[in-house]
Design goal:
2 domains, SH3 type barrels, five-stranded antiparallel beta sheet, mainly beta, Alpha-Beta Plaits, four-stranded antiparallel beta sheet, elongated
């Protein structure tokens, strides 16, 4: 039965790995998102990998010759546990594909990292140790928290790595 597995790629080689995996007959998927890139006073909106250095490949472990994936151009290694590749839970790749918009990008605002209203603790910065309520995500991949301050709720956007669930 075909399942989805995770491939760890070489730096900035996701597209190369996808192309070579497809040439070998594997079903490869690289989820992408839109990011704003600034360079020399210019700003452009580009498609970048949603998970840098990672992509997904679908195959049947019992039928397909999956060991050849490790020797594919652009691939560093197939993520394995012991000797066998580690399969993703069913529906993960389908959910990502279903959330894509017309240009093939996965909108960051649709990714659900925490349940709405979840309590999150800040790990770094000016609000270190404070607990806020999860409100959503911004297009710049930042978590929006609501804090009760000075008698009202204040929205604060923080990097994803600076919060944890309570």
């Amino acid at each position: 039965m075909k399942r989805w597995y995770v491939v760890y790629t070489k730096p900035s080689a996701e597209q190369t790995a996808v192309a070579h995996l497809r040439r070998q007959g594997f079903d490869a998927y690289l989820p992408r998102c839109r990011k704003v890139v600034r360079h020399a006073r210019r700003q452009s909106n580009v498609l970048r990998p949603l998970f840098p250095r990672y992509l997904f490949v679908g195959f049947d472990c019992d039928v397909d010759r999956w060991r050849s994936i490790n020797g594919t151009v652009g691939v560093s290694r197939l993520v394995c546990h012991s000797e066998r590749p580690t399969a993703l839970p069913d529906g993960v790749v389908d959910d990502l594909r279903d959330s894509e918009i017309d240009d093939g990008a996965v909108p960051l605002s649709q990714l659900v990292l925490f349940d709405s209203g979840a309590r999150l603790r800040v790990l770094d910065g000016a609000f270190n140790g404070q607990t806020g309520t999860y409100h959503g995500m911004t297009e710049a991949e930042r978590v929006v928290l609501l804090f009760d301050m000075i008698g009202r709720q204040v929205k604060v956007a923080l990097p994803i790595h600076a919060v944890e669930a309570v």
